[in-house]
Here is the input.
Amino acid sequence: MSALLDVSHVGKRFPVGGVLSGKEMRAVDDVSFAVGEDGPEIFTIIGESGSGKTTLARMILGLETPSSGEIRYEGKLVTHAGGRERLAFMAKVQPIFQNPFEAFNPLKRVDRYLESTARRFLKLSDRAGVDAALDGALQKVGLSLAEIRGRFPHELSGGQLQRVAIARALIPNPSLLIADEPVSMVDASLRMAIVNLLRELRDVFGVSVIYITHDLATAYYISDRLIIMQRGRIVEMGPARPILDAPEHPYSRLLKSAVLSPETADSATLDVSAELVAASNRSLALANTELVSGRDGRLVRIEK
Amino acid sequence: MADILNVDGLKAYYLMNYFGVNREVRAVDDINMRIGRNEVYGIAGESSSGKTSFIKVLAAAIRPPLRVVSGSATYHFKSGDIDVTTATPEEIEAVRWRSLSYIMQGSMSTLNPLRRVGHIFEDFAARPLGLSGSAFRQRISQHLEKLKLNPQILNAYPHELSGGMRQRVTIGLATVCNPEFVIADEPTTALDVVVQKDVLSLIKNLQRDMGSSIVFVTHDMAVHANIADRVGIIYAGRLVEEAPTRTLFTAPKHPYTAHLVASLPRIGDTTQRPALEGRPPNLANPPAGCRFHPRCPLAIDKCRTEVPPLELVGPGQRSACWRWRDVVPLTGSKDVHTAVTA
Here is the structure.
């Protein structure tokens, strides 16, 4: 089965300073991966702020044009799609945003937002058809149209709103969801509800998810494969659990060492290992690097 | 351990009167709490659980419509006792920053973008410290070294610093006067994981050096596990459980705590995690009886009508639940409803 999404040698450079300074920042640097080669999966992009993970997501959604390389969805370039093709692409690849409170217009009822999505993508015009589509999508996330009809965003809790946002993304029956930090603004007790929902979407409805996060614990919990990004470069890539159990690249090891959990509470010190920080900074400075295969079918970036 | 703070029967409501309609939001409802000297006390709770209103009272920032209805919050500082619910503005001014300090959440909005860091320190600490000129500069530089910051940053503007450095500066501002009591409101929430751990370690080290007490507020239980000596869980304006950190994580005695602990994902464990259904109650119209009963898998008729008292259930552990004897730690592998002995 061919890949759903194929990202090949994608780079994005932004000019820094004035036009004349000639300086550039590489937000994303030669990134390649494929999603959904063997059926639906949760593909995780891990990185800190400034790692280029959001820029990458914007390029996949076609909101940003890559400076180099190409992104293909079902074999078609995502950036050159226009008009009807673009609409078809948008129906298949849907975003979920970080902050549900900002994603909704506070002056509009949430069902209107869902309704406009249904009308636009499903080309429905009759009330009964729209309602059926909305209810179907809301059922998938554990809500129902009766619960949210006529409600304004402030009348719903953060967890409910985020679920409505996911339901909205599900209306055009997409095969790929791009979820950029979907749980970082949600309370701890609701976080697992959202994460479990993403898992269920993959298992029950066959939707692939690109899950973008800096939280290694939820990444371990739901992902099939992942990439770890440092300043725009992939430093480690492959099956999620072997990598998070035993990361090889210094930066991945640094990230893992910084994860807090009740089990780490007994360690006498909270200090971050200076050795790991130095090692990960060294790897950042290397200019000539390549990804080579390591244990358990992973790829790790090392010096050439 | 001597107490530095005694909170007794504290009730703080938002009282509003719109067009003759009275509305009250019971954000803090009958909280009793003692915090010892040299202790890190963690406060956990969801958004809209009233934890921010509670620390507003502790930080002596009680402004209408928030009003203290009854109860007291008394600090035992070296300079004397002060009850922040009745103290005059002058009395509060005398202890603010010197004894009672506050680390704010968003470091980007705390620091004045138009002032250099050195000037911010001057605006902030010159008066409480009673120093000026080179003596003041020297004191600040010494303090910055403790925070592993280069004194050069005194000449920088906030936007020139990274997020982690800015958060260190805010911590520096809050601790420069060696306060006896520090309130830290989600100080690491917006930070990356590596920086977060670094900042936590800094707070812990500073606390050891200065021997002050810290109230640490965050909704991230993993952070509490690593920094707090004791943790209190606030749900819908009430303290529902309080215990030494280790006990809280291994033997919670309130269904809400059990759920919070069980829902933490861990690396190395992929078993299904339970998620709590429902939403936090509306504090303007909280449910009768135990406020957790609509979401509680253990709820019985008594829970719907009678408010459970916060009672001692183990060494240093208090829980407000009629059925605390039946609460067992949940494990991820089981369903939330079956893991609890009915």
The CA atoms of residues 56 and 62 of chain B lie 6 Å apart. DSSP finds twelve helices and twelve strands in chain B.
